[in-house]
Amino acid sequence: MSPLNCSFTAVDELTKALQLAVHIPTFILGLVLNLLAIRRFSSFLRKRRPDYAATSIYMINLAVFDLLLVLSLPFKLVLSHVQAPLPSFCTTIECLYFISLYGSIFTICFISLDRFLAIQYPLLVSHLRSPRKIFMICCAIWVLVWVGSIPIYSFHGEMEEYTCFHNMSDGTWSPEIFFPLEVFGFLLPLGIVAFCSSKSIHILLGRQDHTQDWVQQRACIWTIASSLAVFVVSFLPVHLGFFLQFLVRNGFILECRAKQNISFFLQLSLCFSNINCCLDVFCYYFVIKEFRVNIMAHRPSRAQLFLQDTTITRD
Questions:
Q1: Where are the domains of the chain?
Q2: What is the model's pLDDT at position 301?
Q3: Among 261, 262, 258, 257, CA closest to 244
Q4: Which end of the chain is less crowded, N or C, counting CB atoms within 10 A of the terminal residue's CB?
Q5: Yes or no: is domain 3-298 CATH 3.40.50.720?
């Protein structure tokens, strides 16, 4: 088949069925799980314990980004197949979607960096992990992703008829826009997350024979490993799909079947990257478990309470 006559109708129909099967349960589960996560970490934050505050603020920020993505899914599902009533409405939904996507990436990146510094240099960075400073970092993440969303306003160029999340202009796939997005939006955070996670796990495993709090350390290792796994599974395929589509739109790949397969792979990876808002619950689970292990480790035993009561009674 000639590249000029290459049809994507079958790909679009298959993608539509896939999105219906994935987005509806993702919307329901993501809405419930992230609201519960915000509520749970807010309760930890209200306890005003410095060792919980930094992580709790980061986790609330991550859950808010995930919730934003969840709320954009119904609109993405509909507007991907019908024309939006107003171009500005389409742009708004696209902005919300990609802001939540890259907001999650940067938040997980800072969580990994914060945890590594806290493990490697606990005394040096303790004053840097105040709730106020962590809150300012989260605000900076929001400003960063909002500013980074500016190119979205030119996604469709001067086209009069298009559907959201499709029909991107050639300028959108230009090297000047694509490579900064790919490098600073994913590859750099991926390198930071991978480095910090591997170093943190290595440090904690090295303390196995020299610590009395191995149960707490093990919970921390599971938290780090789950965050790394969720990050790679959620965001690596979709950015690989972006790169392949960049090759297609810039004329490096011309064969019709290859272009159809790449188009489907990109839609498939975008579809399953949305499940990230549900996969993050594994991170929440292990963080909450880590908090509980820490609480139990520092809670006095019944024997200690009995001795304390006895001493008070004798005095």
A1: 3-298
A2: 41
A3: 262
A4: C
A5: no
User: 204-223: buried (b, 16+ CB within 10 Å) or exposed (e) per residue?
Assistant: beeeeeeeeeeebbebbbbb
Axis-axis angle for helices 256-273, 214-249 (nearest 10)? 150
Q: How is residue 186 written in tokens?
A: 């994913």
